[in-house]
Design brief:
Strand content: under 5%
Number of helices: 20
Helix content: 55-70%
Strand order of the largest sheet: 1-2-3
Number of strands: 3
Largest sheet: 3 strands, mixed
Radius of gyration: 22 Å
CATH superfamily: Amino acid/polyamine transporter I
Length: 511
């Protein structure tokens, strides 16, 4: 790693880089990276759990809001989004071992297209990873409110307690964090598996009666038998953001690259096993949860669809007990995405795109505690602003829907940029050592880009989602102004930056 000695200063990057990108680099000594070290722990099993655990809450709550457009709309939207994620994850499976940095998506775009593209991608992923746990903790509080029969006004207390507990677990150490991740992920899948088997054995499965209980006018049909696509193609497009919730955040695995013992070998195995697990569970929950009461019409506006399913199968009292166990699924994602935003903020700040103080790690435990606390405060602040400015009822609706769409909008831009990164890396860096090659190649990456772009455009053109996308655009404008005025002159030669500036020829180093 090329680092200067003595007091910080400014120097030019390798030939042409400063003029081409308009950025300058601050020289730091070894003590800078000593204060930002991470600890290696993860292997394939941990990475699989990290990917599946990050997403699994989407199989408990959130996806079901797309059923308001009819079962068929959600079914076709899920197929389309599953194709997008196959293109994305197999592209990442190739890029991540070739660029094994904790920066993940930012480092892919930075290497392939320069610092501005890296920053744009990093901001998109930052929006996704900071807002996604905010949405999840809202669903956790919905479940807990139903279980303990607490008033809606009590929900912010659940949010604060959950953030404090799971940020604390992530700060304690990477070993504990991954142990918790594996445990809660397996428990979350076990709860879903129990639910799937219970539906099939209950005798209450009736696809036509319940899954098709929305009429062409959007009204509930008491005897079912409604149209498969009550809203036609528009309904499919409207359901795309909610189908994303069945897979959102699987792409966080590369953020653990510098905490993995062998990222070149383990990362592809972990992410591919993860997406295949999630596709199987996604279609099971879509069919089985919807094919019992209250069906598509009821689940389309529910904050706890799995709990509704348990109520149907076992009655209210037993359902409460099962719902308490089911909260594990939401906790799995909440915990693992807190890990993700901690590493994502850490990597961008270590390289100077965010203030470098955010990347300091705990002296003994080597966890990015400043980034973890900062991300948690940011997500909680957004929730509190919505909640207290609009009131509990309106705020709850916005957090469950609009905030979800803000997270999806950030994700779609990040996916588009990662697909583009893959294409550019294929053409501009043919010499790059690739321990794994995607079987879908450029076609898979381009397909991912197209679907992500369509989803994002529809979010902007649909009045129901427009406010969320405008909110993302405002945040982008603020962050781009920060980088233009200040951030681009404070970059630091982190592992991602040196790898990019030497066009992949520098020996990879992590700290």
């Amino acid at each position: 790693m090329s680092v200067g000695q003595g007091s910080p200063g400014v120097h030019a990057p390798p030939a042409g880089a400063q003029n081409a990108a308009g950025v300058t680099y601050t020289t730091v000594d070894e003590s800078y990276f000593e204060a930002r070290r991470l600890k290696r722990h993860a292997r394939v099993w941990s990475l699989w759990a990290l990917g599946v655990g990050a997403v699994i809450s989407g199989h408990y709550s959130g996806w079901n809001l797309g059923l308001a457009n009819g079962f068929g709309s959600m079914f076709f939207a899920t197929i389309i989004i599953a194709i997008m994620y196959l293109g994305l994850t197999f592209s990442i499976a190739e890029m991540s071992p070739a660029l094994p940095h904790t920066g993940g998506a930012y480092s892919f775009a930075r290497t392939s297209m320069g610092p501005w593209a890296g920053y744009i991608t990093g901001i998109a992923e930052n929006i996704e990873f900071v807002l996604t746990p905010a949405v999840i903790v809202f669903f956790i509080s919905s479940y807990l409110s139903a279980i303990f029969e607490t008033a809606p006004a009590f929900q912010p207390v659940y949010w604060i307690l959950c953030y404090a507990l799971f940020v604390g677990l992530n700060v304690v150490g990477v070993e504990l964090s991954f142990k918790v991740t594996v445990g809660v992920t397996l428990a979350a899948l076990a709860v879903l598996g129990f639910f799937y088997v219970s539906v099939l054995l209950s005798g209450q499965f009736d696809f036509s009666r319940w899954a098709l209980n929305i009429g062409a006018d959007g009204a509930e049909l008491q005897t079912g038998g409604g149209p498969f696509l009550p809203n036609g193609v528009i309904g499919i497009l409207a359901s795309l953001p909610f189908a994303v919730w069945l897979f959102l955040a699987i792409e966080q695995l590369p953020l653990a690259a510098e905490e993995s013992h062998d990222p070149q070998r383990d990362m592809p195995k972990g992410i591919i096993a993860g997406i295949l697990t999630l596709i199987a569970s996604a279609f099971l929950v879509l069919f089985l949860n919807t094919s019992i009461a209250p069906g598509a019409a009821g689940l389309g506006k529910s904050g706890e669809p799995l709990l509704d399913g348990f109520r149907t199968l076992f009655g209210t009292d037993i359902a409460k007990i099962l719902a308490a166990i089911a909260v594990i699924g939401l906790i799995a994602s909440f915990h693992t995405i807190i890990f993700a935003f901690g590493r994502q903020i850490y990597s961008l700040s270590r390289a100077g795109y965010f203030p470098s103080a955010l990347s300091v790690t705990h002296g003994e435990r080597k966890t990015p505690y400043v980034a973890l606390i900062t991300g948690a405060v940011a997500g909680l602040l957004v929730m509190m602003i919505i909640w207290f400015s609009l009131g509990a009822d309106a705020g709850g609706a916005l957090i469950g829907g609009t905030l979800l769409n803000m997270a999806v909008a950030g994700a779609m831009l990040a996916y588009f940029m990662q697909g583009m990164s893959y294409v550019v890396l294929k053409t501009k860096f043919p010499h790059l050592q690739r321990p794994y090659n995607s079987p879908f190649g450029v076609a898979g990456a381009v397909t991912c880009m197209i679907i992500a772009a369509v989803t994002l455009v529809f979010q902007f053109t649909d009045a129901a989602f427009r406010a969320a996308v405008i909110g993302v655009a405002i945040y982008y404008a603020v962050m781009m102004a920060y980088f233009l005025i200040h951030g681009r002159h404070k970059l630091i030669l982190s592992p991602e930056e040196e790898f990019a500036l030497t066009k992949g020829e520098a020996e990879y180093k992590s700290y």
